[in-house]
Amino acid sequence: MEKSVKHTDAQAIFDEYIEEQGKRKTPERHVIMDIVLDMEGHRSADEIYAMMPEKFPISRATVYSTLSLLDEAGLVFSHQVHGKTLYEAAFGVEPHHHYICKGCGRIWNLKDRNVLQTVSSCRTPRFKKIRCSVYIYGICDVCQARIYRLRKKMEKERIEHMTREEKRFARINEELAEAAQWLVKPDNKQKKKK
């Protein structure tokens, strides 16, 4: 199988970096590099280790050390998410940023020209920008739905265990809150003045 131009160019960069560092060029390192360049998304070192071909035995330590070299060479980006390191291919990839869900830890790419323009227009005196990564933390829609269902369930259980008096006071509290909302609305203030 013939290697793509992307792989050939990346291999030349990696080989040059390895030589500069006084390390050995090994077929294992090149296999790891090829797998990372072809993978989609963001993967942990263990997930990358699991992607290795069975006929080509590579130790977990080799995967970790090679990923570190690839990161230093600029061929891979590493991201710290929920206490673990995730890797993604960097060579030949358009600059982008990331959304990270604080609920499930999912990470996905944010490609927004406004963010890219803002970051590139930032002046950094006496500092040369090499790479910038913006992380937007939040809660994804799946986790939001899970939280909503959990809250509903907890509220239902709370109501089931309330006494009659507690239910009556809760209903009065809701009616007072609705009345307060009605009084705060701008159109109701105007009606009240007339």
3D architecture notes:
- This protein has helices at residues 5-20, 27-38, 45-50, 60-72, 113-121, 141-160, 164-184, 186-193, and strands at residues 43-44, 76-81, 84-89, 97-101, 107-110, 135-138.
- The chain is α+β, with helices and mostly antiparallel strands.
- The strands form two sheets. Strands 1-3-2 form a three-stranded antiparallel β-sheet.
- Strand 4 (97-101) and strand 5 (107-110) form a beta hairpin.
- Helix 2 packs across helix 4.
- The longest helix is centred in the last third of the chain and has 21 residues, at 164-184.
- It is elongated and about 75 Å long.
- The termini are far apart.
Mean pLDDT: 85
Name the overall outline. Answer: elongated
First CA to last CA: what distance?
83 Å
Number of helices: 8
As an assembly, this protein is single chain
By DSSP, the count of extended strands is 6
Strand content: 5-15%
**Percent in helix:** 40-55%
For the largest beta sheet, what order do the strands appear in spatially? Answer: 1-3-2
SSE succession: HHEHHEEEEHEHHH
Coarse structural class: alpha+beta
Rg from Cα:
27 Å
Please outline the major beta sheet: 3 strands, antiparallel
Question: Ranges with pLDDT <50 over ≥5 residues?
Answer: none
